[in-house]
Fold Putative glutamate--cysteine ligase 2.
Amino acid sequence: MRYTECMQDTVENIPFNSSRLGTLGVEMEWMCVDADSGEQVPAAPHVFSALGITPRIKPELFTSIVETNTDIQNKTPDAMSQLADLYIQVASVLKDHNAALLSSGTHPVSHWRDQVISDDERYHKLLKRLQWVARRFNICGIHVHVGMPDGDSCIRAMNNLLPIMPVFLAISANSPFWHGEKTGLAASRIKVFEGLSQGGMPFYFADWKDFEYCTAKLTTTGSIESVRDIWWEMRPHPDFGTLEVRVGDMPARFSDSAAYIAYVRAEAMAAAMDIERPKVHPSLIRENRWRACRYGIHATIIDPFNEQLSPVLEWLEKRLDQLAAQGIAGSELELVSGQICHWRAHGGGAESQRKLFDASNDFSAMIRSMRNLDGWSKLRR
């Protein structure tokens, strides 16, 4: 029985602003670090003083984090081009203040207690309500918005993507350290993220009305103020007319980011077009999510389609063939397949961080090497 079958009251409609299927928007959360020590520094105000706060360059909870956002794009290379331009703008300002941008899901050593809260009423209200949970939220991710034509299509896509979501986490995993500690996890960020009151995995919904009912109950009970306060790792964004995938760590490299965005877009489009896929029990999805969190690209997952064990990169290679058969553009899928070769040869972001630290046993040297190898720092005007 769905929630709406037992409703006794009238639920306010949540308008879903229609978007063309497959249109794309990307948000990236960047850490500001000292160019020498690699420690997080509250340098974001310098960026906003020079460039202003715009829809493309925005503040985050802490003054040591800057968010860059694309406008609406039609394919991954166009989104990457705009993200590169935004990176160059922000990095150019920070360079004058001996600071730089770091792409990582967590800062390897800097502590959340040392971060300065941004002067924004929403963030202060968030901290008042969530307390220690929000104060620890010194983490960075990549959010990919994929256009959906209507609310029911968005819910169908979210339902169909639930079993795939752990793969998104596995290929982006880039947070093996927390406050200087080797966590043993490939993606420790997700363990902080899931502590939010509306964090963690989303749920299966019957349709858009079902989602409206859930949101209404959360609102009327004072659990959230608006849909924006639902922080699931994947959620509908009715204002933008998108499905927003939020599970991924900030990827380690420019090429990792391109592969991640292209893969999320491809899966979201296929998920919206598939009328119905068999539901996978949430316990299996949760297990795969844990395996991705623990092992990243080296995870062995439970295949959501046949429940057989499979190394995640082998599974992903076969999955790309299936997506191609569904009509997903080859130019997008090639961004993913090419990066699989790199991951096999060199490892993912988490493995790269561990190798760099083991080579120097020094976090400052490790962070400088991360920046030199990320592909973003080579970009020039």
The CA atoms of residues 123 and 129 lie 10 Å apart. The two ends are 57 Å apart (CA to CA).
